[in-house]
Protein backbone atom coordinates (compact mmCIF):
# COMPACT_ATOMS: atom_id res chain seq x y z
CA UNK A 1 0.00 0.00 0.00
CA UNK A 2 1.38 3.43 -0.92
CA UNK A 3 2.08 6.06 1.67
CA UNK A 4 0.05 9.23 1.97
CA UNK A 5 1.80 12.21 0.47
CA UNK A 6 2.50 14.06 3.71
CA UNK A 7 6.10 12.84 3.34
CA UNK A 8 6.47 14.15 -0.22
CA UNK A 9 8.88 17.06 -0.35
CA UNK A 10 8.93 19.10 -3.59
CA UNK A 11 12.37 19.43 -5.10
CA UNK A 12 14.39 22.54 -4.45
CA UNK A 13 15.02 24.33 -7.76
CA UNK A 14 18.70 24.50 -6.81
CA UNK A 15 19.02 20.79 -6.03
CA UNK A 16 20.76 19.19 -9.00
CA UNK A 17 22.22 15.72 -9.36
CA UNK A 18 24.56 14.49 -12.08
CA UNK A 19 23.82 10.99 -13.37
CA UNK A 20 26.35 9.01 -15.39
CA UNK A 21 25.06 6.45 -17.89
CA UNK A 22 26.67 3.12 -18.86
CA UNK A 23 28.78 4.87 -21.52
CA UNK A 24 30.17 7.44 -19.07
CA UNK A 25 28.00 10.31 -20.35
CA UNK A 26 26.98 12.78 -17.65
CA UNK A 27 23.58 14.47 -17.55
CA UNK A 28 22.32 17.00 -15.04
CA UNK A 29 18.97 16.26 -13.35
CA UNK A 30 16.69 18.33 -11.12
CA UNK A 31 14.94 16.85 -8.11
CA UNK A 32 11.19 16.65 -8.77
CA UNK A 33 10.43 15.51 -5.22
CA UNK A 34 11.53 13.14 -2.48
CA UNK A 35 9.44 10.96 -0.19
CA UNK A 36 9.78 8.32 2.50
CA UNK A 37 8.08 4.94 2.59
CA UNK A 38 7.40 3.32 5.94
CA UNK A 39 6.45 0.09 4.12
CA UNK A 40 9.94 -0.25 2.61
CA UNK A 41 11.88 1.77 5.21
CA UNK A 42 13.53 3.84 2.48
CA UNK A 43 13.69 7.35 1.09
CA UNK A 44 13.09 7.93 -2.62
CA UNK A 45 14.00 10.68 -5.06
CA UNK A 46 12.42 11.36 -8.45
CA UNK A 47 14.49 13.25 -11.00
CA UNK A 48 13.97 14.81 -14.42
CA UNK A 49 16.50 16.19 -16.93
CA UNK A 50 17.62 19.74 -16.12
CA UNK A 51 17.53 20.57 -19.83
CA UNK A 52 13.82 19.69 -20.20
CA UNK A 53 11.42 22.50 -21.09
CA UNK A 54 8.12 22.94 -19.25
CA UNK A 55 5.96 21.68 -22.13
CA UNK A 56 8.20 18.72 -22.98
CA UNK A 57 7.35 15.15 -21.97
CA UNK A 58 10.27 13.74 -19.99
CA UNK A 59 11.42 10.44 -18.60
CA UNK A 60 11.45 10.60 -14.82
CA UNK A 61 14.20 8.66 -13.06
CA UNK A 62 13.50 7.17 -9.62
CA UNK A 63 15.97 5.92 -7.04
CA UNK A 64 16.03 5.02 -3.39
CA UNK A 65 18.63 6.98 -1.46
CA UNK A 66 20.34 7.40 1.86
CA UNK A 67 19.77 11.01 2.97
CA UNK A 68 22.86 13.12 3.59
CA UNK A 69 23.28 15.28 6.72
CA UNK A 70 20.77 17.80 5.29
CA UNK A 71 18.24 15.08 4.40
CA UNK A 72 18.99 15.49 0.68
CA UNK A 73 19.92 13.00 -2.02
CA UNK A 74 23.22 13.15 -3.84
CA UNK A 75 24.55 11.09 -6.73
CA UNK A 76 26.90 9.16 -4.42
CA UNK A 77 24.10 7.47 -2.53
CA UNK A 78 21.43 6.63 -5.13
CA UNK A 79 20.32 3.03 -5.46
CA UNK A 80 18.30 1.41 -8.28
CA UNK A 81 14.79 0.16 -7.53
CA UNK A 82 14.75 -3.50 -8.54
CA UNK A 83 11.59 -4.87 -6.89
CA UNK A 84 8.37 -4.79 -8.97
CA UNK A 85 6.14 -4.09 -5.95
CA UNK A 86 8.44 -1.26 -4.90
CA UNK A 87 8.25 0.18 -8.45
CA UNK A 88 4.45 0.00 -8.33
CA UNK A 89 4.44 1.95 -5.06
CA UNK A 90 6.79 4.63 -6.50
CA UNK A 91 4.64 4.95 -9.64
CA UNK A 92 1.50 5.32 -7.51
CA UNK A 93 3.11 8.13 -5.47
CA UNK A 94 4.31 9.81 -8.71
CA UNK A 95 0.85 9.59 -10.29
CA UNK A 96 -0.73 11.08 -7.16
CA UNK A 97 1.88 13.87 -7.13
CA UNK A 98 1.24 14.66 -10.82
CA UNK A 99 -2.55 14.61 -10.32
CA UNK A 100 -2.22 16.95 -7.31
CA UNK A 101 0.06 19.24 -9.35
CA UNK A 102 -2.52 19.37 -12.18
CA UNK A 103 -5.25 20.24 -9.66
CA UNK A 104 -3.14 23.12 -8.32
CA UNK A 105 -2.87 24.74 -11.76
Automatic annotation (TrEMBL):
InterPro entries for the chain: UPF0473 (IPR009711)
Recorded superkingdom: Bacteria
Family per similarity comment: Belongs to the UPF0473 family.
Protein name: UPF0473 protein ACFQ41_10690
Organism for this UniProt entry: Lacticaseibacillus suilingensis
Source organism phylogeny: Bacteria, Bacillati, Bacillota, Bacilli, Lactobacillales
